[in-house]
Amino acid sequence: MQGTIEQSIGESAGQIYNYLADNKGQATFTKLKKDLDLKGNFAELGLGWLAREEKIELAKSGSSLKIRLR
Questions:
Q1: What number does CATH give the domain 5-69?
Q2: What is the value of pTM for the model shown?
Q3: DSSP structure class, residue 4
């Protein structure tokens, strides 16, 4: 990832969105993070971006965090 931090977060958000779209609109955070291999905190930052834009829903299920597209 190159450019500003904001651009990198936006790119991470795009990767997460596309990943969810390709996986029936949902996944656990653990699987998403492993499959995308986003560096540092970019998985969390990208999720925050999508949550702020109201593009995803987050739900706690036991010890897992489930993410799905709205």
A1: 1.10.10.10
A2: 0.90
A3: -
